[in-house]
Amino acid sequence: MLKKTRSLIALVIATSLSQPAIANNNELPDIGTAAAGTLTIDQELIYGDAYMRMLRASSPIINDPVLNEYITNLGHKLVANSEDVKTPFRFFMIRDRNINAFAFFGGYVALHSGLFLHASSESELASVMAHEIAHVTQRHLARSMEEQARRTPATIAALAGSLLLAIASPEAGIAALAATNAGSMQSQINYTRSNEKEADRFGINTLAKAGFDVYAMPTFFGRLADEYRYASTPPAMLLTHPLPQDRITDSRARAQKYAPMKLGPSLEYHLAKARIVARYANIESSASLDWFERRLKKNNATLEPTYKYGQALVYLDTKKLEEAEPILTALLKKDALNEFYLDALSDLYIYQQNPKKSVQMLENALSKKPNNPVLIINYANALIESDDNQKAVSILQKYTHERPTDMNGWQLLADAYGKTGKTDENIAALGEIFALRGNWNKALQNFTQASQLADLGSLEQARFDARIDQLMVERDRFLSLQ
């Protein structure tokens, strides 16, 4: 039941957020209005934040700093070449072998790890991301809700709230969605298909402007349609993003309007794919090693480092350090500032109980890439393992201030505070993690306890009390949406 519920939610949310179509520039039909009568951008941001907190609490989100940095950089490259961008964008991954991606209020774009297992190139992955970005910039979810509001007496609050309720309480959410959608399923399906085509067209334009292969979109979608044409259970992506032949034909015709682009394989994409195969594909280590070994036998010199890196990760995760070290050392020698290699070697030195070697390596890399989040988070971890906790605290205070939604940063800060004996700060840092997951009561309990532990009248106590007030406002706003 839960799986079906999530598919329904994804279906509603994947027909995501919209701005009016720019027909003059993209030869698109005018679909609906700008959704100004439905939700404002500020309201969408509030709903997006609430939904993201629910996902953190209920879904297997991958909090991997290397993968997060890769998809964030790729996503922002696409956003920089998109039209009608009204919100910040945040990209994240869910550990799920099913092929899927979806976007929702507030510029959030989710990618299933299974996408990497089926996309053969960075352009194919970018085509899916560009499609989802278009759902956001064109405000398809808000426009869909506006269309529903025209046909039913339900309020916008009921329409939007039912989406959130469907996550917090699946059976009640299904009933709420059914009530607000009664008698309008066929027109809703047609509206969704229009949104999908519009997202394809805007997405292809984004791909072209960002320097990716525009043919990757019809190629990837066509391959999926062929592969699952007769499947009794198609992947989630085909349930939430229907692929009728006319949609594939339309995207292919659209791509043909752009000059062909010959791109070589992206090393970063294939390193990210290797990391997913090694760590997030839910397969045995022996199967992962076999996957990399079979590809190494094809003697592709360009991609050989990515397969060796994948092998090294498997050895690292199974504590075969003597096999992982020479591979990683050789890779780093040829590419000294590669974040994938530096992250893996940092862990290896820590496993070898030599964290100071990791600290030295990362300090050298940070002198050349001082603001890199992957290096910073690894550096802080290595400092904690080296018992240099006060320095780690200083670094992580700045890191969490600049990246307040990164749970890795808060967890490491809690660990560092715990090792320095600052129990109040340790509890407060953990409170931030509870808040990010929408567990408001636990977050408030943590900050109340931290305030009680702090010296009476101290700046720390004043800071904790101020945060309690903020959390109460955020909690009340969150609960009002349901």
TrEMBL record:
<dbReference type="InterPro" id="IPR051156">
    <property type="entry name" value="Mito/Outer_Membr_Metalloprot"/>
</dbReference>
<keyword id="KW-0645">Protease</keyword>
<feature type="binding site">
    <location>
        <position position="135"/>
    </location>
    <ligand>
        <name>Zn(2+)</name>
    </ligand>
</feature>
<feature type="active site" description="Proton donor">
    <location>
        <position position="200"/>
    </location>
</feature>
<feature type="domain" description="Peptidase M48">
    <location>
        <begin position="68"/>
        <end position="252"/>
    </location>
</feature>
<keyword id="KW-0732">Signal</keyword>
<keyword id="KW-0479">Metal-binding</keyword>
<dbReference type="Pfam" id="PF01435">
    <property type="entry name" value="Peptidase_M48"/>
</dbReference>
<comment type="function">
    <text>Functions as both a chaperone and a metalloprotease. Maintains the integrity of the outer membrane by promoting either the assembly or the elimination of outer membrane proteins, depending on their folding state.</text>
</comment>
<keyword id="KW-0862">Zinc</keyword>
<dbReference type="InterPro" id="IPR001915">
    <property type="entry name" value="Peptidase_M48"/>
</dbReference>
<keyword id="KW-0378">Hydrolase</keyword>
<feature type="binding site">
    <location>
        <position position="196"/>
    </location>
    <ligand>
        <name>Zn(2+)</name>
    </ligand>
</feature>
<feature type="active site">
    <location>
        <position position="132"/>
    </location>
</feature>
<keyword id="KW-0482">Metalloprotease</keyword>
<dbReference type="InterPro" id="IPR011990">
    <property type="entry name" value="TPR-like_helical_dom_sf"/>
</dbReference>
<feature type="signal peptide">
    <location>
        <begin position="1"/>
        <end position="23"/>
    </location>
</feature>
<comment type="similarity">
    <text>Belongs to the peptidase M48 family. BepA subfamily.</text>
</comment>
<dbReference type="InterPro" id="IPR030873">
    <property type="entry name" value="Protease_BepA"/>
</dbReference>
<dbReference type="Pfam" id="PF14559">
    <property type="entry name" value="TPR_19"/>
</dbReference>
<feature type="binding site">
    <location>
        <position position="131"/>
    </location>
    <ligand>
        <name>Zn(2+)</name>
    </ligand>
</feature>
<keyword id="KW-0574">Periplasm</keyword>
<protein>
    <recommendedName>
        <fullName>Putative beta-barrel assembly-enhancing protease</fullName>
        <ecNumber>3.4.-.-</ecNumber>
    </recommendedName>
</protein>
